[in-house]
Amino acid sequence: MEITGYDLYELPPRWLFLKIETDEGLVGWGEPIVEGRAKTVKTAVSEMLDGYLVGEDPLRIEDHWQALYRSGFYRGGPILMSAIAGIDQALWDIKGKYYDAPVYELLGGKSRDKIRVYQWVGGDRPADVVEEANRLVETGYTALKMDATNQTRHIETAASIERVVDRIRKVREAVDDTVDIGVDFRGRVSKSMAKTLTNRLADLDLMFVEEPVLPENVEHLPAIADQSPVPIATGERLYSRWDFKELFRGGAVDLIQPVVSHAGGISEMAKLATMAEAFDVGVAPNCPLGPIALAASLQVDTYIPNLVVQDHGFDIHSPDLGPAYDYLEDPNVFNFDDGYLDTLDDPGLGITIDEETIESRSQAHVEWQNPTWRNEDGSITDW
């Protein structure tokens, strides 16, 4: 069997899908994307497929991964690793279909029968987030995540700090204590404010604080962890085992959060989970993306023993609320019940793409960009 061609589709709201074709009629799907950089990643995927992969045997996944990563003098980073990630997902999809088995069986089989998931709580005002948190809990979620802050200055006022703490506290008080709450800092605060805020949040029994500092400032995580009992999570903006290596050695991180469409795909995410297990670290994959990425992440989740909880980027509990289900032939494949998703047990990634809808929607103009934030004085701040 050999790879004969491929197609790339830019799709609303901000997704990029890859279809790899073979001479035996088997097709694999992947989701190579950096949010806001779809065209850049699209070019990288085309370069890798045209320059190396077309004409090759799709079943030699590890060999292809090594070739795509190591044959370039410049390696790693969000663009190249996301391109590899989408290709890797599509190759696993083909291999699963070839052997008539879900990907998790090829990785080593099930470590669990269902996968706990959390949903993001939207809103900026305390009343808004409390209302949304209650709605999600009523829907069946047992874990939630919310932003800690919007834009912040290097050192914030006591009033600003109190507003942040009050907003999170109100959600903690509003929901049952069986509901876990993660708080995402998104690297928006300085190390100084990270220490202050994690200390102030220490009595709220949070599941984790995510990205208390930017990934380029992870050397400060041990100091933050030393003065806070809240588990530290990070890794959404790290892209390979080499990026995570020093993070593990530092000993401050309790959960890693790789994204299957950024951190090298299914192959690399499974290896990251094994590394994490050796350092007594859990895995809570981020996935603010589409249905192919979620399916790929769930395949790894089913296999790895140290999964804690899975993020997802669209409303799995209500197909009417998002476009993801329009791209699937079976809109019920993501079966959500009491805070858990069922494992995906069909061959490959376990989903079937509606190619007619993909073709139609790919004609739309998609130009998603994240906003640029500025402080009151006009200076740029982190989004």
TrEMBL record:
Sorted UniProt keywords: Lyase, Magnesium, Metal-binding
GO molecular function: galactonate dehydratase activity; metal ion binding
Taxonomy, superkingdom: Archaea
Pfam families per UniProt: MR_MLE_C, MR_MLE_N
SMART domains xrefs: MR_MLE
BP GO terms, sorted: amino acid catabolic process; D-galactonate catabolic process
InterPro entries attached to this UniProt entry: DgoD-like, Enolase-like_C_sf, Enolase-like_N, Enolase_C-like, Galactonate_deHydtase, Mandel_Rmase/mucon_lact_enz_CS, Mandelate_racemase_C, Mandelate_racemase_N_dom
UniProt keyword NADP present: no
CDD domains membership: D-galactonate_dehydratase
Domain Mandelate racemase/muconate lactonizing enzyme C-terminal intervals: 126-231
Gene3D superfamilies, per the entry: Enolase-like C-terminal domain, Enolase-like, N-terminal domain
Keyword Metal-binding (UniProt): yes
Name this polypeptide is given: Mandelate racemase/muconate lactonizing family protein / galactonate dehydratase
